Amino acid sequence: MPRPPSPPLVARWTKLKCVVRLKLCSSSRASNPCGGLAQQAKPPVWCNLAGGFCIFGVFHVLLLAFFSCMRSFLSRFRQPTWLATLCFLMVTALLSACQKEDTTDYTERDEALITAYIKDNNLTGFQRQPSGLYVAITQPGTGANAQTGQAVSALYTGQTFDGKVFDSSSNNNNTPISFVLGQGQVIAGWDQGFALLNKGSKAILLIPSELAYKGASPSSSIPAHAVLRFDVEVTNIK
């Protein structure tokens, strides 16, 4: 909404009205049309008519300015950019409202995938953990198993169940990865799996999605809710 005329503008229009009335009503020198405490003499009829026309002109100009400002303000809402933005926001809100929460029970699905994978690949020696993790020790090590808070160094190769390798120590000149066990520095499947291993041991970890990356997709090679296989070797425990 346009702002009302400022006092200086009103003052100028008042002054203009006064000047017109002074010139048209010069015969009434005793009057004081611009205000004051002096008594004004009664002006002629034609002088009042001239003043009325002057006031009507001022009102007409102000009215035109008002409608001009309103037209300029409303025209902003007809711009294509504004309409496109509004449509985008409406579509986004509708899509968000239509999205359904994922209620799939991945625990049962992952269990079925892992058991089928073991059978299809003729794998043996796996022990199922209460969490759903499957561990098969392919080469025993020596000493005590790794404990929470100890630094573990290991070589590894990770792949999805379709055989695609997504990461490996061989990509880093076979430099072992090091992490502190049980501190959440790695996925839960690693924290649980390496707690069953000792120095020098090798194993295969079949990790359900809830112990891996869950609904996240850390890379294009690992889809959301992926069940993963890791071939690992413990090189050191400190």
UniProtKB/TrEMBL annotation:
Q: Could you say which enzyme class this protein belongs to?
A: isomerase
Catalytic activity annotation: [protein]-peptidylproline (omega=180) = [protein]-peptidylproline (omega=0)
According to the UniProt entry, the coiled-coil residues are none
Alphabetized Pfam families for the sequence: FKBP_C
Q: Which Gene3D superfamilies match?
A: 3.10.50.40
Q: Which residues form the PPIase FKBP-type domain?
A: 149-238
Q: Which UniProt keywords apply?
A: Isomerase, Membrane, Rotamase, Transmembrane, Transmembrane helix
The EC number of this protein is 5.2.1.8
> What PROSITE patterns does the record tag this protein with?
FKBP_PPIASE (PS50059)
User: Which Gene Ontology MF annotations are present?
Assistant: peptidyl-prolyl cis-trans isomerase activity
Family assignment?
Belongs to the FKBP-type PPIase family.
Q: What name does this protein carry?
A: Peptidyl-prolyl cis-trans isomerase
- Native organism is Hymenobacter amundsenii
